[in-house]
């Protein structure tokens, strides 16, 4: 038994396990630091050559280059989140509290399978089938609700606009939000639900007063996971969205918006030197905005947990 113990009387296996666990945790921070250093170092040539630093009118302004891309990225992700979250919560509640057990297991399996579909398949589906299908609907919105900035502007076919890309993004993040929300709702204390029902509450009143408040922090976490997926999605957006570089709110207009990830994917093959550095700078912007959003989500979840 003495031979099996290391320093301080600890077992050798405990020491090895502790070392591996600490090392694995530190590896995450090391990887994050290396990615940050790479992005910052590779972005320096673009920053030095930018109009903001040189004052040269012929130089490319990083603000005018990255600004519209950041706007399109966040705008598309937020639209997708607005569409996906209510549907995801409804599906999660149906699976966890309304559907029969067999149907719930089948639906859960289908949702998990949907999360495994490659993004290029969603891009093909959206570009070849969904965009033509949405054409009459978008024209109807533009004709009758064109006075609303979102649906205004000139529309043209094919409808490869931000609205189409956001719908596909919503479908892509729906299984993530649904799966996490479902597991959170299933953890609701059974005694609290039974107490609410015993006091005369209906099934919906029980969900509204017990299940949803209990799972609020989990839904926020699930939504932020989906938002992170939407912010970084590349192939589906690249295959659906006709690129543009404006700050337009008209989501039905073609050639008005683009995202950072899609722009990098479409230009990285032929870029070199300062052009490549400029693309890496936009990647740094996306990295920072994703980090900030996840930090805010963590703060919201922590506040909900302590309140």
From TrEMBL:
It is a multi-pass membrane protein. InterPro entries: MetI-like, MetI-like_sf, Phosphate_PstC, Phosphate_Transport_Permease. The chain crosses the membrane at residues 20-45, 65-94, 106-125, 162-180, 230-249, 279-301. Gene3D superfamilies: MetI-like (1.10.3720.10). The keyword Hydrolase does not apply. Residues 70-297 form the ABC transmembrane type-1 domain. The keyword Membrane applies. Keywords: Cell membrane, Membrane, Phosphate transport, Transmembrane, Transmembrane helix, Transport. It comes from the Bacteria. It is found in: Cell membrane. Part of the binding-protein-dependent transport system for phosphate; probably responsible for the translocation of the substrate across the membrane. NCBIfam families: phosphate_pstC. Belongs to the binding-protein-dependent transport system permease family. CysTW subfamily. This is Phosphate transport system permease protein. It comes from Brachybacterium huguangmaarense. The lineage of its organism: Bacteria, Bacillati, Actinomycetota, Actinomycetes, Micrococcales.
